[in-house]
Write a structure and sequence with these properties.
Layout (H helix, E strand, L loop, with lengths): L7 E7 L4 E2 L4 E2 L3 E8 L6 H12 L5 E5 L5 H4 E3 L3 H12 L5 E7 L5 H9 L1
Parallel strand pairs: 1-7
Antiparallel strand pairs: 1-4, 2-3, 5-6, 5-7
């Protein structure tokens, strides 16, 4: 792992009971801290493989949260290489090169529920 400006610190939340609404939360997750991960030398598929190995579980759906926002407003899905590039932009625009990742083990329509919550 790299510890220079090309690396990120990641909080990976997984194996939680579920995302809930009113407000949107992720109950009782396990949290894994990863420091100095060189994501610039990974692509989206390699990152998902890394996450699966890290948490020793499947990664049905992977989300990240925009800095300084609540899950209701800042949760973004990580589905493909374009989303992965956006994740890197968010992480590297933080003073601490920090990003939070949330893994939904239940494959539920979280973003649909959030849109309903907002309306």
């Amino acid at each position: 792992m790299s510890t220079d400006g090309d690396s990120l610190n990641i909080d990976v939340y997984n194996k939680g009971i579920f995302f809930s609404l009113n407000p949107v939360v992720y109950f009782h997750p396990q949290k894994v801290y990863v420091t100095g991960l060189d994501l610039c030398n990974m692509n989206f598929k390699e990152f998902k493989t890394y996450l699966r190995k890290l948490i020793n579980n499947r990664c049905w759906d992977v989300y990240y949260c925009l800095r300084n926002q609540f899950l209701l407003d800042g949760l973004k899905e990580l589905r493909d290489e374009d989303d992965y590039v956006r994740l890197l932009d968010v992480g590297f625009n933080d003073d601490n090169n920090q990003i939070s990742i949330y893994i939904d083990d239940y494959h539920k329509p979280i973003l649909d529920w959030i849109e309903e919550e907002k309306s």
